[in-house]
Amino acid sequence: MPSARAMRLTADREGLRRLAADELGLPTAPFWFVGSLGELEAVGAHAGYPLLVKPVAGPTGQRQSVVARREDIEPAWRRAVGDQSSARVLAETVVEVEFYVTLLAVRSEGPSGPAIEFCSPIGHRGSDGQVLESWQPQKMSAAATDAARSIAARIVKALGGRGVFGVELMVNGDEVYFADVTSRPADSAWVTLRSQRLSAFELQARTILGLPVDTMMVSPAAARVAGPADPHDPAALIGALSVPESDLRVSGSGFRALATAPEVTAARERAGQAAERLAAPAPRG
């Protein structure tokens, strides 16, 4: 299972970023940690805009803001600190990227010691900290893939422990930047229920139990969060599941539509169709 160090640092954005950038030398967006509105204003004056402002603790994406001009700084500060009387926030330069990707790194005990294996890259999009859609594989250049694996291996090795780590990366061509890491399967990992021989959740269990792992991808796939749906509406369920190679999963956060296809673009379309049909209101007679 993840080490105590991994659990602590993945919940502390400042400690994690110091480890990644200062100790390991991983490429990141330029960043600053500040403890007051005045310090944040000084960062804006020094670094320019836009800036991404986010709390030091909390789920990725939640309570973060893009600051486009000086007038946006105070609202961004208040949103990031919330109701805390004293807090620190992370401000970072918005770097040019083509897409964001999750690289699941599986750290297990092999015959000759700790080993790290990687799942195929997962692309995703979201809003306010929630992953709305994910797909696997995300196409990347060979150079970017090598860089992503190097970054992921170094941060996971430094965190320690066994398990599935979700390493969040920003990709621009062959350039890759470290963004964040979770000491558990990332929210974008739902897609692996259909894309891999062993899902991220099965891999997590196997690493903890000391069993062999296999990160093989068996089919391109996609996952999409479905809007508010009535699970007792058989017409909606039938409509969603009539989409070729589709399936549904239910969690505490709602329904997810999953689909496979020969190509990832088709899988995304199928998952989207299933999600839309599930959320569509039943016709009234």
UniProtKB/TrEMBL annotation:
PANTHER family recorded: FORMATE-DEPENDENT PHOSPHORIBOSYLGLYCINAMIDE FORMYLTRANSFERASE
Species assigned in the record: Mycobacterium intracellulare 1956
PROSITE patterns: ATP_GRASP
Gene Ontology BP terms: purine nucleotide biosynthetic process
Pfam families (alphabetical): ATP-grasp
GO cellular component terms listed in the entry, alphabetical order: cytosol
Recorded GO MF terms: ATP binding; ligase activity; metal ion binding
Protein name: ATP-grasp domain protein
Keywords: ATP-binding, Ligase, Nucleotide-binding, Purine biosynthesis
Span of domain ATP-grasp: 18-209
Xref: InterPro entries: ATP-grasp (IPR011761), ATP-grasp_carboxylate-amine (IPR003135), ATP_grasp_subdomain_1 (IPR013815)
